[in-house]
Amino acid sequence: MRSSTRGRLRSVAWLLSGVVLLALGVVSALQVRGALEREREFRSAPACASVPVRASGCVWEQDFTVRTADMHRDERREPPEAELVPPSGEPWHVTFRNTEPVLSEMEPDEKVVGLVWHGQVVEVRDAEGRRQPTSSGPVGWPEDRLGGALACVSLGLPALVGGAWALLARGSRRHAAAATVVRWHGVALGIAAILTLWAQSANDWPLWAIPAIWGPLALLGLASMTAFTLAALRGELADDAASAPRTPQPQTG
After folding, report:
1. Checking phi first, is residue 62 left (phi over 0); if not, alpha (psi -120 to 50) or beta?
2. TM spans, by residue (predicted)?
3. What is the DSSP letter of 131?
4. What is the pLDDT of residue 204?
5. Which of 142, 144, 145, 124 is nearest to 134 (CA)?
6. Which end of the chain is more exposed for a tag (fewer CB within 10 A), N or C?
7. What letters, b where the CB count within 10 A reaches 16 and e where it falls short, cover 177-216?
8. Edge-to-edge order in the sheet of strand 92-95
9. CA-to-CA distance for 130 and 128, rounded, in angstroms?
């Protein structure tokens, strides 16, 4: 009885996780277009003729002096951040998505150049010419949104299907095995999407590289999922013998 209850709870957990992940995937997918438009707007923005007095769509390079730089290595929920001071003296608080390649080398009183767009520092450049986007920077967001959508849908849909399948087909070892196959293949597909996004970001490949790499991997994963699911339904993965009643054998004197 306890084993059956634990199995149902596990299936419910997979089902709910699938719903949440699918919702996140849909939200991420809907954000891809807006992120692309914002990145195009930034790349086509003209240089400002003079220091903008208010938030503007032109791009301005502002000199800053580093006051503080904090990696937050021991605080995973806190983004890396820095406090930059322009000649006017009013500090700007800037956050980053990661620490490389500029933030990790920042020291107090170091001179850097910040790229200001729509009233925000979207990129920081050090004295050696290395550039790093800030959390406000539009570059790279379309890739992040697309990769997040693929990962969440890849994980969420099989989790939803596998969880619902296990709940609706209780008592059938073959269907339970098939549902397990679907769920764990979804985990593999999600990991493949995450690794694809990592490879694209590390190598600075264009947006189309994400579906170009992940697509063949997804097809292989779906083919494997189909083959193993059919094998489970045929009883090749479930131990049917364990559930069959045993006939008492006569004892010989």
Report:
1. beta
2. 146-169, 181-199, 205-233
3. E
4. 81
5. 124
6. C
7. bbbbbbbebbebbbebbbebbeebbeeeeebebbeebbee
8. 92-95, 81-85, 59-70, 111-117, 120-125, 131-133
9. 6
Q: Would the pTM of this model clear 0.70, i.e. be above it?
A: yes
Can you tell me the distance from the alpha carbon of 13 to that of 17, in angstroms, rounded to the nearest whole number?
Answer: 6
Can you name the residues that pair with 117 across neighbouring β-strands?
Answer: 59, 120
How many angstroms from the chain centroid is the CA of residue 37? 21
Q: What is the structure's pLDDT at 148?
A: 92
Q: Which amino acid is at 220?
A: L
Tokens describing residue 202: 């590390």
CA distance 218 to 195: 12
Q: In 3D, which of 135, 99, 111, 107 has the Cα closest to residue 61?
A: 111
- Cβ proximity of 58 and 48 under 8 Å: yes
Among candidate residues 93, 141, 104, 96, the one with its CA nearest the CA of residue 126: 104
Q: Which residue has the tokens 């107090």?
A: 108
Q: Quote the tokens at residue 172.
A: 């059938």
Nearest 5°: phi and psi at 249?
-95, 135
For residues 141 and 38, the answer to whether their CB atoms sit within 8 Å is: yes
Q: For residues 18 and 161, is the Cβ–Cβ distance under 8 A? A: yes
Q: What parts of the chain have a pLDDT lower than 50?
A: 240-248, 252-253
Cβ atoms of 69 and 92 closer than 8 Å: no
C-alpha angle with apex 175: 9 to 159, nearest 5 degrees?
50
